[in-house]
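Re: Re: token formats

Sure, here are both.
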Amino acid sequence: MSTTSSNGNNAVATQTVKANLGDAGTHLKQAAGHAGEAIKGAAGAAGEEMRLGKAQVKSELAETALSGIAAAELAGAASREQMDRLMDKGRDLIDSASDLIRERPLASFGMAFATGWIIAKLARSGDK
């Protein structure tokens, strides 16, 4: 009797192992499905973050372009302003020179003559 009872226990044990392995396979399959869903969710979230980041980069680049255009426009106005200042200084210098010539005509003529002579001398010495 012990053989029959032993075979019966073995059959039950085998069936239990098979059932446990079947349950393990089912649970493994479900775990794989959940992992796949998690990966899909993570990929979707990453894609959304990428779209958001891309939109933010585009926005900042557009702001950069607008700031650059504004700076270029202001640079033109600033250069005109500087040119006007230089022209005013040039006019002031010409007025000062005119006043000096009126006040001291002989000294002015002498300075102009001496300057011309020095320039001519330097030009001739450069030709040799």
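Second one below.
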Amino acid sequence: MYQDEIAISAYNSDTESHRLIRIERVIGYLCALAEHYGNDTLLSKIAKLHDHKGTLTVTWRSNPTDGEKEFIVKAWCSRIGDGVDNVEHECT
């Protein structure tokens, strides 16, 4: 579905490894959403996901649509995410 790797990082990931696991699960959720809605480009647009104390920062390779931003918020708000809608977007 996507060719480029998504870099993941998290605040205090050396002592709180669950943060990285949570981001990996969010990526799985995003894969499912993208597949369900026929979005073949979503994951290739994402360069990096970073969790900083419950705020997910998404670094995009190219500008996302509003719908793609909603996918991210939905995944982060889910049970496998942080359960909150603290998402920030930045482009490279």
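The CA atoms of residues 8 and 77 lie 18 Å apart. Helices lie at 18-36, 42-45, 66-77.
- S.
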